[in-house]
Amino acid sequence: MDVTPEQLAESVASLVRIPSVNPLHTGPRAEAAGPIGERVLAEHLAARLTALGADEVVLDEVLDGRANVYGRFAGRSERVVLVDVHLDTVTVEHMTDPPFDGRIEDGHVWGRGALDTKATMGVLLTLLDAWRTAGVRPDPTVLVVGTVGEEAGGFTGAIRLGEWLKERGVEVDQMVVAEPTDLAPVHGHKGGVALAVTVHGTAAHSARPELGENAIEAATPIIDAFRREHERLQTIPPETELGTSTVSVTMISGGTGSNVIPAECRITVGQRTIPGQNAHDEYHHLVELAEAASPLPITHESLIPPLPDGTCGADAFYQPPDGALALRFATASGNAPKVAPFGTNALRYHGVARELVVFGPGSIDDAHMATERVAIDDLVRLAEIYTDWLEPT
To answer: Percent of the chain having pLDDT more than 70?
Structure first.
């Protein structure tokens, strides 16, 4: 029932060789490699899961041509665990390595997605194959899930997974969201809101500015209001390891010519939310600050696609570090539970599982880079940790 490092590496490499670039990250290199999006990978995984003896395999259309994939493997007990691996990758346009060759070299598997996050799926597939061959089953029922749209587009696959589980009446006891965490269980990270505020003025010749209403000038007190809100938030003592909420203006654009009073100015602002904050309320608080500060009319839009109920933003993900799942992974990996500075699908899984951790091999510091790789030694360790967790006999 043991799996070899070579088997694990080749399993991950085979997934890297299937391009699955998020459509919002497309470009000439990605398009030359094959169809953009997750469809081909999802269909490949559906076939693999079926061949591995899954009791049920579902391709669940989320967006046009983009589907989540779900595979169910019955366990020996009534417990249900779920492993979520996002199928999409970021852009490959800036890569200095061949993005999809999946080469195995210098103790690593190379290529886009190897680290973020095809490593976990490759390890799981290898373990399931070994267990099927040995005639053993895991203790819990295992749901192996591949979701679309994590890297860009508002976690659409995660939102749909939550809906699908609710429709089926599936209660998940423990859930792992695969991400590079240095094999440390992550029990919390900030949520967020992102919005664009557009100030509406009146164009005029710059020689007669009194005939216009300068939208760029009207935007400056809005920016100052957002800065003061950030400073206010820093005075509130944090209640968790996630620290304080932050507000940042990240983009500004406006104007049509050097001799034209600008009729519009657009500001992009984001807030990282913490436990205890309601992201939807924080979104509208930022809007209220902008409306109060601007001498001209404004409009606004959420840059994170709203939920079906119209809710904007994503509440923070946080569970106590002493939960059974976090402690089990900490013991197995030798790494203490921690919080993370980045966001994941976990932001859309509130209430989906009784316990949830974000967990996987490699460091987030190495993700989205011009090269991407995952250490084969980490794949071996991950296989050992998952075997300890799932207890096949």
So the answer is: 100
pLDDT (tens digit per residue) in 13-40: 999 999 999 999 999 999 999 999 999 9
> In angstroms, rounded to a whole number, what is the distance separating the alpha carbons of residues 123 and 83?
12
Question: Residue 360 has which token pair?
Answer: 């996987």
**1 pLDDT above the threshold of 80:** no
Residue with tokens 């300068």: 214
Kind of pairing between the strands at 141-147 and 204-205:
unpaired
Sign of torsion, CA 208 210 212 215?
positive
Backbone angles phi, psi at 130, to 5 degrees: -65, -40
Asked whether the bond before 117 is cis by omega within 30 degrees of 0, the reply is yes
* pLDDT score, position 308: 87
What is the CB neighbour count within 10 angstroms for residue 135? 7
Residues 6+ apart with CB under 8 A from 146: 38, 41, 42, 45, 68, 69, 84, 85, 86, 87, 121
Q: Is residue 153 within 8 Å of 128, Cβ to Cβ?
A: no
Helices (H), 39-168: 39-51, 119-134, 156-168
Which residues, in sequence order, are CB contacts of 27 under 8 Å at separation 6+? Answer: 91, 92, 93
